[in-house]
Amino acid sequence: MAIGTLAASLAGTVYAQESAGLSLEAAVRQAVAWHPNIVSAAATLDARGADVDVARAGYLPQISAGVGTGYDNRLGSSWRPRPQVSASQMLYDFGKVRSAVDYAQAGTRVGRADLLLAIDGLIHDTGYAIVELQRNAALHDIAEEQLARIREISGLVADRVAKGASTRSDGLQAESRVAAAKATLAQIDAEQRRWGSNLAFLLGDEKARAPVSADMPDWLMRSCAAGLADWSTVPAVMRADAQREQAAAQLHRSRADRLPTVSLAGDAAADIGSPFSDRSAYSFGLSVSSNIFGGNATRARVRSADYSLAAADAASRQARNEASQRLAEARQQIGSLTRLLDTLNLREADMAETGQLYRAQYLEMGTRTLVDLLNAEQELHQARFDAVNTEHDLRRLQLDCLYYSGRSRDAFGLTGTRLRGVTL
Hints:
Radius of gyration: 36 Å
Number of domains: 1
Strand content: 5-15%
Mean pLDDT: 87
Main location: membrane
CATH topology: Outer membrane efflux proteins (OEP)
Coiled coil: 320-347
Shape: elongated
Structural class: alpha+beta
Strand order of the largest sheet: 1-2-3-4
Family: Belongs to the outer membrane factor (OMF) (TC 1.B.17) family.
GO molecular function, one term: porin activity
CATH superfamily: Outer membrane efflux proteins (OEP)
Low-confidence stretches: 1-19
Protein name: Adhesin transport system outer membrane protein
Number of helices: 9
CATH class: Mainly Alpha
Distance between the termini: 10 Å
Helix content: 55-70%
CATH architecture: Up-down Bundle
């Protein structure tokens, strides 16, 4: 799918979903369609493709021309300007040009990996922003309910204080809890605005504050259950492997520089005033050239390339190790947080019942204090806050699994589409 087609189809999808809220899939496609990181990575990939053409030019004839002046004992001429032309064709160079081409082609693979890394990173960041907005929307609802319930209790306490059934300290305690609930709501609102701004910049519309859908696709919550990562689709590993190929090509080139280059060469020079006179000079034949001595620079370059290859080998292993580690960490946390969520749901049900009992015991029987009732309300809503946070932490972990396994593009239907002239 061309980038224009992707953007056009995206626009219709986004506007169709405005009433229900912006979905994760629509947000990801909108971000990928415009983001400068993607544009920059695609342009860099194009530049690396041009580097391959530059390297392949070493297989073609090299022709140069100009005008020079100087004394030549073959011609016995004065210091008069002479047109000069020279041409050469490499016949055999022990792999110098081949190594340059290999290096440039590996560079295109580095560029492609950088593009995929930019796309996957943008998907990850956009997904995080959506999850955080969903989290804060859910927390906001709970915080508003908490404030309403504590205000209700505070009103009941105020009536009891007015009637002399409760002390003034009870009234102050209730007012303090109302203020704390307001502060919690304000903090959640601030976080919601922050993540809304973050998402707007990711989507390329600084003024947009589209509501976010509370739903997540079913497949997302199974992302960490997938099998082992396919290293050929993990951009960080792809980049490390391509850099290793670059290092190997550079080592081959450095070793080839020790050996001669055989070429067919010719040159001609003529008197500018009489180009067909006996003052013209022509030469043509085989040329064998080699660097005899360069201050041991060639040997040093070989050592440097050898070390670079060893470093690239280690970097490739490290990329695999880090991706495997992050995947394992996410999968282990999934199990722990899932069990925690079950516990929190049970605790919420228990605390809801406890709160009802404490309310009756405080208002009707007088066997519970106001602090007991307020603490029960606080524990109930804290359990609800914790459950929401745990649920959305699980969503973030699923996004982590997609990112570190290299499956983000597949999951969001981007594989096989064309983006900035590149097929993903």
